[in-house]
Write a structure and sequence with these properties.
single chain; mainly alpha
Length: 74
């Protein structure tokens, strides 16, 4: 008997409420795994899902707004 069969056998013996808890836990594990994968994405990669487009020109403009005419290398 493989793991999936063992899980299904034990799952069928649980009341409906506990079956829901098992499902919630499995979904939590899936979400945790996908969250861990996303932690290693670049910031630019994180923006892709949000549809954010930031160019070097945008960054330079914001730096100028923040620092004004100070003697800071941009």
């Amino acid at each position: 008997m493989n793991i999936e069969q063992k899980i299904m056998e034990k799952l069928r013996m649980l009341p409906l409420e506990q079956q829901q808890e098992v499902l919630d836990f499995v979904e939590f594990l899936q979400q945790k795994k996908s969250t861990q994968k996303r932690q290693y994405r670049s910031v630019r990669g994180s923006w892709v899902d949000l549809g954010v487009q930031i160019s070097e020109q945008d960054i330079t403009e914001v730096r100028r707004e923040m620092w004004g005419n100070s003697e800071v290398d941009l």
